[in-house]
């Protein structure tokens, strides 16, 4: 029988109440798939860990045939890619070098929005077949993108998470130790047939009870949104007594400064995972504070960009999920900008080779800023925006823009006349004041269409400050 990891609530009311929501990964979290993943983990663990030490040349030798194969596969089997690449003159078998690959056009959400889902999956497969699993992107982008995976793609992604935990926890990552996850998604299985169990909490509502729960579960790794770190600060002594091997932040912007601060007070590494629902883990921050792209699941291109302010080392990130055969994202631009370090022959003190990501810059413009210079996580503001405007027939689409003077914000929307939305905007404004802990001057602007953003992401929140 499958271990019901969510039943380990130890009679704690708020933990029980906030762990009942299904996560989208539950669709593949069956005992059968857990068995499959457990077997793969046993067979492939040594290889998976060894790949972390690959040189740039080794990574390239691994990547090239796979890039060539996924491009040809997509060109032959997926209607969208066939038309997309054909219109750029692509012919089967033309990827013979990485330079050839880099001549392919980029994909982004703007392009995908105009593509019908059935044109983005291989011909002849049934969307509703039980061997396929649907998930979807969420968060700040405004449009949910459905994603189709098969068992191969699911288990590759899950294994890359277990590898991350193993890498961070070392010998202490034993089958009886728990992983604790605070999120509405989990990205891996709830256990491997009872081994390496994960408890998923959707939200911390009672911090005291949450810490008591941690003390019962005694996880080796804790995954959370960085916005929870300050909530846990009053419990630093008790949390550091748990001797967790790492706290992994994800999904929202956090600064290195913050992570170092919380590493010190929680007495464990607080490290950032840079990932996306589309492709999985893109890069993980190491204890020496460099993000290293995963060497084998996703091909990560860091392409230098000129910045108007003259900042050095800024790059766009293009990802290729080259093992996926249901819905491969090829040269996919999430719209993120990062700053980079190192070079192909560089070896970090952690042992990993190649160029590094020093900071994920792009997602910061999804965050609002406060007078105290703090970032307010997108998730909180997005939820508030959604709860006000998603259900009204008077607002078709919207965007919140924080201006250079940070108490000035514009609410842009497409929809009915201003007098029909005023009351909602006023209610949102008072909620926003509470979140930002400052006075705000919110201007309502009705537009015919929301302006396109440079990254093509349809953003709900933009910070110009
Ligand atoms: Zn490193």
UniProtKB/TrEMBL annotation:
InterPro entries xrefs: ANL_N_sf (IPR042099), CapK_Type1_Caps_Biosynth (IPR053158)
Coiled coil spans: none
Keywords: Ligase
SUPFAM superfamilies according to UniProt: Acetyl-CoA synthetase-like (SSF56801)
One annotated GO molecular function: ligase activity
Membrane recorded as keyword: no
Domain of life: Bacteria
Ligase is among the record's keywords: yes
Name recorded for this polypeptide: Phenylacetate--CoA ligase family protein
Species annotation: Metapseudomonas boanensis
């Amino acid at each position: 029988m499958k271990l019901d990891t969510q039943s380990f609530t130890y009679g704690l009311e708020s933990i029980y109440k906030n762990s009942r929501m299904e996560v989208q990964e539950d669709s593949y979290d069956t005992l059968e798939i857990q068995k499959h993943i457990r077997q793969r983990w046993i067979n492939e663990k040594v290889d998976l860990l060894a790949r972390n030490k690959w040189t740039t040349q080794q990574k390239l030798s691994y990547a090239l045939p796979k890039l060539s194969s996924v491009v040809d596969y997509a060109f032959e089997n997926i209607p969208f890619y066939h038309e997309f690449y054909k219109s750029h003159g692509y012919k089967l078998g033309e990827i013979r070098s990485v330079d050839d690959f880099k001549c392919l056009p980029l994909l982004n959400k703007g392009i995908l929005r105009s593509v019908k889902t059935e044109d983005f999956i291989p011909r002849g497969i049934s969307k509703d077949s039980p061997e396929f699993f649907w998930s979807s992107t969420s968060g700040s982008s405004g449009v949910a993108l459905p994603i189709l995976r098969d068992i191969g793609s699911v288990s590759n992604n899950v294994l890359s998470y277990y590898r991350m935990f193993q890498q961070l926890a070392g010998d202490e990552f034993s089958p009886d130790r728990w992983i604790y996850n605070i999120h509405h998604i989990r990205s891996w299985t709830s256990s491997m047939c009872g081994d390496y169990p994960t408890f998923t909490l959707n939200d911390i509502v009672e911090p005291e009870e949450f810490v008591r729960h941690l003390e019962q579960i005694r996880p080796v790794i804790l995954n959370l949104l960085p916005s929870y770190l300050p909530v846990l600060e009053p419990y630093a002594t008790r949390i550091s007594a748990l001797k967790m091997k790492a706290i992994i932040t994800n999904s929202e912007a956090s600064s290195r400064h913050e992570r170092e601060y919380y590493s010190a007070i929680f007495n464990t590494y607080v490290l950032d995972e840079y990932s996306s629902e589309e492709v999985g883990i893109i890069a993980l921050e190491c204890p020496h504070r460099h993000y290293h792209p995963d060497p084998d699941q996703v091909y990560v291109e860091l392409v230098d960009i000129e910045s108007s302010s003259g900042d050095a080392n800024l790059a766009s990130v293009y990802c290729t999920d080259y093992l996926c055969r249901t819905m491969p994202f090829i040269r996919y631009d999430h719209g993120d900008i990062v700053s980079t370090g190192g070079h192909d022959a560089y070896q970090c003190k952690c042992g990993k080779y190649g160029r590094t990501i020093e900071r994920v810059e792009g997602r910061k413009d999804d965050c609002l800023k406060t007078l105290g210079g703090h970032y307010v996580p997108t998730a909180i503001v997005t939820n508030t925006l959604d709860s006000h405007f998603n259900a009204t027939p008077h607002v078709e689409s919207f965007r919140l823009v924080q201006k250079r003077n940070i108490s000035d914000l514009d609410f842009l929307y497409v929809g009915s006349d201003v007098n029909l939305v005023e009351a909602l905007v006023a209610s949102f404004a008072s909620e926003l004041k509470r979140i930002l802990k400052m006075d705000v001057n919110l201007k309502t602007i009705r537009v015919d269409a929301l302006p396109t953003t440079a990254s093509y992401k349809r953003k709900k929140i933009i910070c110009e400050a």
